[in-house]
Amino acid sequence: MPPEQAAAIDAALDANHHDPTRLVVVLQDVQHRLGYVPPAAVRPIAKALGLSRAEVHGVITFYHDLRTEPGGLHTLRVCQAESCQAAGGAPVWEHVEAVTGTAIGGTTADGSLTTEVVYCLGLCAVSPAALFDERPVGRLTAAAVDRLVVSAREQRGDGHGEVAS
Ligand code: FES
């Protein structure tokens, strides 16, 4: 295991006092530090928390927010809950897939953008809604998606994408 991964796992375990009841938080912490939860993390986390590897693996596969491989440098989280459906989100989501060249949940070939589905961002008043990195995007349109995808490509790695209105 690369040293940075081992260090991230140790730090996440220490921050959570090696408490097995905080397994989900430990995994989220690892993902926050590394961008994903490497499959090689399962064994040391299970050992440190006194859990089986199956238990740790089960939690990773249950929580869709946890990734087991690196994502893109930017993330577009598209809400597909009721209000955003009712506001005509479906064609926009289809456009997201067309313009990124991957189903929602995938990463563009250049690694600039990962898309994810979420269910209600608390932005129902401006449905259909999304989050670009951590920034809310309301009334998402195909044109706004185009701008975000271009922004992700142009600003790879700097964490600053254009926010559509
Ligand atoms: S249903 Fe999409 S933000 Fe609430």
UniProtKB/TrEMBL annotation:
A molecular function annotated in GO for this UniProt entry is: metal ion binding
Q: Which cofactors are named for this entry?
A: [2Fe-2S] cluster
What Pfam families does the entry give? Answer: 2Fe-2S_thioredx
Q: Would the keyword Transcription be found if you checked this record's keyword annotation? A: no
Q: What is this protein called?
A: Unannotated protein
Give the UniProt family note.
Belongs to the complex I 24 kDa subunit family.
For this UniProt record, give its keywords in alphabetical order, as a comma-separated list.
2Fe-2S, Iron, Iron-sulfur, Metal-binding
In its keyword annotation, does this UniProt entry include Metal-binding? Answer: yes
